[in-house]
Specification:
The chain is an alpha/beta fold. It has 17 helices and 16 strands. The protein folds into 2 domains: 201 residues, Rossmann fold; 191 residues, Rossmann fold (3-Layer(aba) Sandwich).
């Protein structure tokens, strides 16, 4: 049985889009007959033992503290991570190292792969220098931005194979000089085993949130996720007065939290549509489906940026799997997932009036809702089901010995 060690920034039991994609990959690979484990670096901050089982998956942890000036601190972090990977490699003897971005994971794995002659697959979920710009912790073109990009380019150049989650990332790597045949696109996906029959609306929750008017359920537009600036939730709030003018009973439900939460709450309180906007704060992961069940339309008003043009988000796919209508901004990452007028509606980014028009159009044409729902669900089932897509990793893994022989490195032991 082929053993795959996944090298990760963080993992379950922490909850994030990153950990849910990891879980889906590892579970699908288990189903294909691979023996899989994960190892996380210092940025896995949940307390736990040195080796921890979560949801039937085994994860090893890296111990220690990396301190010092920026640059040296990250280099020390990579060193501690590489030492932890090395110990697992010596004990478990995996056949393949499969590192996932950020580049700190890739560089630590690369050191160990070279030392032991193990093939390395490097998977990029986003360019983390662009993600730092998007979440407000970095600036484009800064020294940190350029160093992060350079480190990632180094890992990409020396990995045996590269995987990206979407075409936007693949094309950017090709423009940097990465050979096309070195890159495989493994599209973002949904574990449909977790998205069975959607829950019925919780009537007590409906009443608690005030989602009834004149004895009827209000149409609800929802967003469930992290409140980063690039998500464009300020645009969505700005669109609400124009939407309410055309659909007086419409409500906006914002579930989650993050750096923009205080600013968004203040904006909503000052809005003429304040009475139609509800914040819940963060909710436990096991309760998220209760809030999905309240929503008719899931809105994703991401702002135009390098990050949103290159990277495909997971949330619209989860919404389609749940049988929800999807309205999203017309940025590159959304265009890879949504066909305008077929599986959802696209509207101009950074445009509150355009957002309001799109939402009003969907609410005005309820006779088309079932068509959108069927098309969205079919799209996920045929193109974004992890149970199907993960089989493509077999193609990547199987070509590694040929790649290494061509490079004069020999096949993995």
């Amino acid at each position: 049985m082929t053993r795959i060690l996944h090298v990760l920034d963080h993992s379950l039991p922490m909850h994030s889009g990153y950990t849910f994609r990891t879980r889906a990959i590892l579970k699908a690979q288990q189903a294909l007959g691979y023996d899989v484990r994960g190892i996380t670096g210092l940025r896995h901050t949940a307390q736990g033992p040195a080796a921890e089982e979560a949801d039937g998956l085994l994860f090893h942890r890296t111990a220690g503290i990396a301190s010092g000036l920026a640059g040296y601190r990250e280099w020390r972090e990579i060193g501690l991570f590489a030492q932890a990977i090395d110990r697992v490699v010596q004990d478990w003897q995996p056949d393949i190292l499969h590192a996932h971005s950020p580049a700190l994971c890739g560089q630590a794995a690369l050191r160990v792969a070279r030392r032991h002659g193990i093939p390395l697959v490097y998977e990029i979920r986003a360019f983390w220098e662009d993600a730092a710009v998007g979440n407000g912790t970095g600036s484009e073109g800064s020294l940190k931005y350029r160093l992060t990009r350079k480190l990632e380019s180094h890992v990409v150049a020396h990995a045996d194979a590269v995987v990206t989650i979407c075409e936007g990332l693949r094309q950017d790597l090709i423009a940097r000089g990465t050979p096309q045949d070195k890159i495989t696109v493994m599209r973002n996906g949904v574990d449909l085993a977790l998205f069975g029959q959607p829950l019925d609306r919780d009537q007590a929750l409906v009443r608690a949130l005030g989602f009834e008017a004149n004895g009827k359920l209000c149409p609800v537009i929802g967003f469930i996720g992290s409140f980063y600036d690039y998500e464009g939730l300020d645009v969505l709030i700005e669109a609400m007065p124009a939407l309410i003018a055309r659909q007086p009973d419409a409500r906006l439900l914002l579930v989650g939290g993050g750096p923009m939460e205080a600013a968004l709450r203040a904006q909503a309180e000052a809005s003429p549509a304040a009475d139609a906007i509800r914040f819940t704060g963060r909710v436990p992961h096991h309760e998220v489906d209760r809030y999905y069940a309240l929503c008719d339309i899931m809105a994703y008003p991401r702002k135009h940026s390098r990050l949103t043009d290159l990277v495909t988000p997971l949330k619209p796919l989860e919404a389609m799997a749940q049988g929800k209508l999807v309205a999203a901004s017309d940025v590159g990452g959304h265009r890879e997932l949504i066909t305008d007028g077929v599986t959802g509606i696209l509207f101009p980014p950074d445009d509150a009036a355009g957002c309001a028009d799109a939402l009003a159009g969907l609410l005005n044409h309820r006779d088309q809702w079932e068509r959108y729902r069927r098309a969205g669900r079919e799209h996920v089932e045929t193109r974004h089901d992890w149970a199907v897509n993960a089989a493509r990793y077999q193609d990547v893994y199987q070509m590694l010995p040929r790649i290494r022989l061509r490079k004069g490195l020999g096949a993995a032991a």
